[in-house]
Amino acid sequence: MKQSPIEVFNRWAEIGKDQGMADGHRSAVLQMLELSLPETPFSFLDAGCGNGWVVRLVKSMEGCLLSEGIDGSVKMIEKAEETDPLNKYYRDDLTTWSPSKTYDVIHSMEVFYYLEKPEELLAKIHDKWLNPKGRLVMGIDFYQENAVSHDWPEKCGINLMRLFSEQEWIQMFKNAGFEEVSTTRLDVKDDWAGTLCIIGQKS
User: Fold this and answer.
1) DSSP H helical segments within 16-99, as ranges?
2) Chain CA centroid to CA 17, Å
3) Domain tally for the chain?
């Protein structure tokens, strides 16, 4: 029987699969950060932070003033806080959370397609989570052009995964108010269309 994304991620955290996810995404995430982090001092939020590895990585970088994470999985946040008592982690629903501060860069890897209405969260991030000139950088592997990913809902037993094309994601970013929306595909291989990276900037 299929489960919700949160239920699946709680189970993965318990059996240690979170580390494999981090290792598998590391190359793409490093490239996403290189494309999106500013040269000036910045604050950072990882939306869907899992065990917090990106939060810790970014905090170690020169120019990072603040690095925080939010995730809906209790078990993932427990792991993040156990590993890293220094940075702040929030256990909350991304779609209803209201941060008490705004950020210069918001990063999200493999999260948005688990939402019923990703366009609503994109608009909320643009309007309420980002500073002026702030950036959202999103990475996803489950999208229309990456054919090898299409059976993941069945393989992973997850009941909510929205499959959109690259162009549909670009349009969602633009509809949410983002400017200078750009895309690139990272780590493309023969049977792998690559991690789709989309960056949008708030005016």
Assistant:
1) 17-36, 53-59, 74-83
2) 17
3) 1
First to last CA, the chain: 44
Q: Can you list the positions of beta strands (E) in the chain?
A: 42-47, 64-71, 89-91, 103-109, 130-140, 179-186, 195-201
Helix, strand, coil percent content, the chain, rounded in steps of 5: 40, 25, 35
Residues of the chain with pLDDT under 70: none
Q: What value, to the nearest 5°, has the Cα angle with vertex 111 and ends 128 and 159?
A: 125
d(CA 162, CA 147): 14
Read off the amino acid at residue 14: E
Alpha carbons within 13 angstroms on the beta-carbon side of residue 49 total 33
Residue partners of 146: CB distance under 8 A and separation at least 6: 192, 193, 194, 196
Would you say 143 and 197 are in contact if contact means Cβ atoms under 8 Å apart? no
The whole-number pLDDT of residue 100 equals: 96
pLDDT of residue 3: 82
Contact between 159 and 6 under an 8 Å Cβ cutoff? The reply is no
Q: The CATH number of the domain where 116 resides is what?
A: 3.40.50.150
Q: Helix (H, G, I), strand (E, B), or coil: what is residue 166?
A: helix
pLDDT at res. 162: 96
Which domain, by its residues, includes 168? Answer: 5-201
Q: Are the C-beta atoms of 201 and 178 separated by less than 8 Å?
A: yes
